[in-house]
Design brief:
With 459 residues, this protein is mainly beta. The chain has 3 helices and 31 strands. The longest helix is centred in the N-terminal third of the chain and has 12 residues.
Length: 459
């Protein structure tokens, strides 16, 4: 898929962060077909003064919508961190919002505000705000996609969880806890009306023996998870797990710690205070992993304004202090507009523990990028290297694990000209570089891989 197709596809998919179901299947192709949504660029202006960047025309909430970008006196860019440029993807997301039935918002920070933010780091314009999410969900309703599972290596997916069907509207999380006699802990974003619920369940040795152990329910003030749920092993032994998600629509991260499922429900859990420091505000779902070498829960997320990838750790379930070396977080000097995948584990090429982060690049190519980090006992990190692939991936959370102590496996949907978001597995080794494998089905908003199970949302 060319950049001319990848950018509009990414611009549309932004709206799925709101937990809505896009009214029709969408995909990108050239040339356009009449009555489908058309995107075109003009070297002229939409008015004599060239004061508008784009406009739409058509019938709301249908395929029959035309989006135009005007390149008259505007400085356009594919890199949102360009100081004096207008980001193609951000402007297209705004215009697609009109196609979904939204008018302009009064909130100056909203994506659907009539003005371009002009934030010096640019990426801030790619994210939905509260007004955007409330508006599009009132028009399009709440998504309800099937949750599927399979054992690693299986060719087909299953929708039966101990005889029941489960439904989700955001990317799921799964992690393996050996203390559960080989059970996995699965977290996903379910729904009731316009509210989100984080549902936690145990499944082992496969989700065919699923047990719904607890739902983390708040109230109807948008305090529960959006954009999915991250799950990881926690400090304190193999019995304990942790969950992280976005708290409210202001982007604060909330972590639930010390979870261990028992027959009757959640045996215990510690609800940590939401991380309200400005360093812990994000626009996309955080990622969790456990570093057994230094006994730290490790969390990666992106800064809500700049897209800077940050990493922090916590060595105790009894406090809410997240650190990295001498500060609150480690600055990776890497940027993205999508959730980050992270994993830590033994790495045989260096005979030591390493951590890896995977994410799509900010630029229009959306190529998958992988960075290797060295973790330290005080929670700090140093960056060893990064490698760009030639694989364009969608902006949903990459699922990442270390296989055979020498291979990084990443499963994530890639940009396709087909009518779905096909899942592919990408691998990286120090000796052989990048490889890709297919097919692994398709998904709407993401998947997760744990110690003994794979989970996806939507077909």
């Amino acid at each position: 898929m060319t950049e001319a197709l990848r950018i509009p596809t990414a611009a549309v998919s932004v709206w799925e962060q709101a937990g809505i179901g896009i009214p029709t299947k969408y995909w990108a192709y050239e040339p356009y077909t009449p009555n489908d949504t058309e995107v075109w660029a003009s070297s002229g202006c939409c008015n004599g003064e060239c004061t508008c960047l784009g406009e739409y025309d058509g019938v709301d909430s249908t395929d029959n919508c035309s989006v135009a970008l005007y390149r008259g006196n505007s400085n356009w860019t594919q890199n949102p961190r360009t100081v004096d440029g207008y980001d193609y993807q951000a402007v297209l997301s705004h215009e697609f919002g009109h196609c979904l039935g939204l008018d302009h918002e009064d909130d100056v920070d909203a994506l659907m505000n009539s003005g371009y933010d002009g934030h010096p780091d640019g990426i801030d314009n790619r994210f939905l705000r509260k007004d955007d999410m409330l508006g599009v969900r009132s028009v399009q309703g709440h998504a309800s996609w099937s949750l599927y599972w399979r054992n690693p290596g299986d060719s087909s997916w299953n929708s039966s969880f101990n005889g029941s069907s489960l439904w989700a509207s955001g990317s799921p999380g799964v992690a393996y806890g050996g203390g559960f006699n080989g059970w996995n802990l699965i977290g996903f974003q379910s729904s009731s009306g316009l509210d989100w619920v984080t549902t936690i369940g145990k499944a082992g040795p496969t989700p065919s023996s699923w047990t719904n152990v607890c739902g983390i329910w708040h109230d109807n003030t948008w305090q529960t998870s959006r954009d999915g749920v991250a799950v990881g092993r926690d400090v304190g032994g193999t019995n304990y797990m942790a969950v992280a998600y976005l708290y409210k629509t202001n982007g604060y991260i909330r972590a639930v710690r010390n979870l261990y499922p028992v027959a009757g429900g959640c045996g215990s859990f510690a609800l940590m205070n939401q991380l309200t420091d400005t360093d812990f505000i994000t626009r996309r779902r955080p990622a969790l992993t456990y570093n057994a070498n230094n006994s730290r829960l490790t969390m990666a997320w992106i800064d809500y304004h700049t897209g800077l990838i940050k990493i922090s750790t916590n060595s105790s379930t009894n406090n809410s202090t997240w650190v990295s070396g001498g500060g609150q977080y480690y600055n990776t000097s890497e940027y993205t507009d999508a959730p980050v995948g992270i994993v830590c584990g033994y790495w045989s090429p260096t005979a030591s523990t390493k951590c890896f982060i995977a994410f799509p690049r900010l630029e229009g190519d959306h190529y998958l990028r992988l960075c290797r980090l060295t973790p330290y006992s005080n929670g700090g990190f140093s960056k060893d290297w990064c490698s760009n692939s030639s694989y364009a991936i969608s902006n949903v959370p990459p699922s990442i694990r270390i296989a055979n102590d020498n291979t990084v496996e990443i499963m994530v949907p890639y940009f396709s000209t087909g009518s779905s978001a096909p899942i592919r597995k990408y691998t990286y080794t120090e000796s052989g570089g990048w490889s890709q494998y297919s097919s692994y089905g398709s998904t709407k908003v993401g998947m997760a891989i744990g110690g003994g199970v794979e989970i996806k949302v939507g077909n």
